[in-house]
Specification:
It is built from 10 helices and 6 strands; from the N terminus they run βααβββαβαβαααααα. By secondary structure, it is an alpha/beta fold. The chain is globular, with a radius of gyration of 18 Å. It comes from Parasteatoda tepidariorum.
C-alpha cells in the first residue's frame, strides 16, 4: 500500500529532523518538507500539529509568539494538536504546568474547542504521537490524495491559492491540481470548489468571495 503522506514545515529540518527520520523509517510515513506558515505538520485538509519545546515557555516573548501561531492553526484547520516536547538538550526541565506562562497559553488554547495539547518526553514519543494521529486520519479517509511535488508553474498556482486566509496548504494543492488556470477557478461554482478542495460549503463561499474581492480591489487600485 502507498505510504501515508504528510507535509512538514522546512523549519523542522533544524530542530525536528529525528522526528522526520522516525516517521519515514519506523512508521512508514512519507514526510514532504515544504515551507508552511500555519503549522509544523499538516496531516490532512482538516488537521494540523504544532510542536513546541518546553523550554520555549521560559522565553520572554514566548506566549505571544506561540499563541499567535496556535491561533493561526486553529483558524485554518478543523482540528489542531499542540505537542509540548521536553527539550532533550537540557539536563533538568524547568517546565511547570502551574507557571503563569503555561496557564496563559492553556487558557488561550481552551478558547479553541478543536485544539488539544499533548505532552512528549522525547523525539521518539513525538513521532509516535504523530503516527497515531496519522493512522486515525487514514482510517477516516482524510489523508493527502493529490500530488505535492510542484513545478514552477504549479508552485505559482499553489502560492496564489494559499494566499487566501481560508485555504490550507492541502486545499491549495487540490485547487492547483483541479484548476490549473486561475480563470477556471474564479468562474466555477461554489459546489465545484467544495468538491475540488474537499471543504465545506461555508468555506467554499468564503474563499470565492475573498478572491473575487481581491481581484476587484486590484482592478480599481
Amino acid at each position: 500500500p502507498d505510504r501515508p503522506m504528510i507535509l512538514v514545515d522546512s523549519k523542522e529540518l533544524a530542530g525536528g529532523k529525528p522526528i522526520i527520520s522516525l516517521l519515514r523509517n519506523k512508521y512508514g510515513v512519507n514526510p514532504v518538507v515544504m515551507q508552511l506558515t500555519s503549522a509544523d505538520y499538516v496531516i490532512s485538509n482538516r488537521l494540523a500539529v504544532e510542536r513546541i519545546l518546553d523550554t520555549e515557555f521560559s522565553a520572554s516573548n514566548m506566549p505571544v509568539k506561540v499563541t499567535d501561531k496556535v491561533k493561526l492553526m486553529c483558524d485554518a484547520f478543523e482540528k489542531s494538536f499542540v505537542i509540548i516536547q521536553t527539550d532533550c538538550r537540557k539536563r533538568v526541565s524547568s517546565f511547570n504546568k502551574l507557571s503563569s506562562k503555561y496557564l496563559q497559553f492553556s487558557l488561550h488554547v481552551n478558547l479553541h474547542p478543536s485544539a488539544r495539547v499533548l505532552f512528549s518526553c522525547s523525539f521518539e514519543e513525538s513521532a509516535s504521537l504523530l503516527s497515531d494521529i496519522i493512522l486515525k486520519e487514514q482510517r477516516n479517509g482524510f489523508l493527502i490524495d493529490v500530488p505535492v511535488v510542484l513545478n514552477p508553474s504549479t508552485q505559482l498556482l499553489f502560492d496564489f491559492y494559499h494566499s487566501c486566509p481560508h485555504v490550507t496548504p492541502i486545499c491549495a494543492l487540490r485547487f492547483a491540481y483541479h484548476f490549473p488556470v486561475v480563470g477556471m477557478f474564479l468562474n466555477n461554482s461554489v459546489e465545484s470548489l467544495k468538491k475540488a478542495g474537499s471543504i465545506s460549503t461555508r468555506k467554499a463561499i468564503s474563499i470565492l468571495e475573498y478572491f473575487k474581492s481581491e481581484i476587484l480591489f486590484d482592478a480599481y487600485s
